[in-house]
Amino acid sequence: MKEPFRVTVAERRARLARRHHLAPEARAGSVAEVAGSLVGLHSTDPATVFLSAALRLREPSLTAVEGALYDDRTVLRMLGMRRTVFVVPLDLAPVVQESTVGPIAAAQRKLLIELLATTGVATDVQAWLGEVEAATVAALDRRGEATAAELAKDEPRLRTQVVLARGKPYEGSQSISTRILLTLAAEGRLVRGRPLGSWISSQYRWAPIERWLPAGLDSWTAEAAQASWRSTSTAPPASRSRATSNPPSGSSRGRRSCRRSTPA
Fold first, then answer.
1. What distance lies between CA 22 and its chain's CA centroid?
2. pTM for the whole thing?
3. Per residue in 137-157, pLDDT tens?
4. Do residue 41 and residue 164 come from a single domain?
5. Which residues partner with 77 through β-bridges?
6. Domain final residue, candidates 89, 111, 144
């Protein structure tokens, strides 16, 4: 019987170093290439994405990462696995949205409604929340980009307070602005833009996805998106772009905003 082929620990580590652009001869030419090879760069701490990319780029610089995020917009900062923030290439964003963020959005909306129900702010909390969200999106569309504090000036109901961890020693209160913006972003309606301050700031400006990405994000069914990404994730960025220009048969992809309806 033929002996099975075995990969040694050293070989596995060497392959991983090349695949993740850690080997000097395998450095990447762009932030999007790095983010694609790693299936997203962790970005809950704003500095992490800069450090992760710089370690793997042939020509690392703050300018290169900021350019990819905010000028060329070849990568997108969004919620992802474990409800944390990641930076992903645009062709991976629909996969993350359909496979991971949709359930997060539904859970966040349910939690927000439950928190609001304890405030007595309205008899029909869902209708009230819908009005606030519509006013927030309209204000953001007028401004182009804005922080939560700026939007609260246009829509004062964003300052509504909810109690967190009620009855616990660490009970506290919080305005609903952050939760509403997080939920709208998880539903693919908003994106985190350029932060206030320096590259290590975590206070982001927000923007409607149509203004941030005029062409919108590709919209896929979950099955088609995952199949396409699996088939092209090992290809160079240029060929990956060509490979994803034609969706798999039966997909509902279109050049539009990556929105999905989520149950209340």
1. 24
2. 0.77
3. 999 999 999 999 999 999 999
4. no
5. 87
6. 89
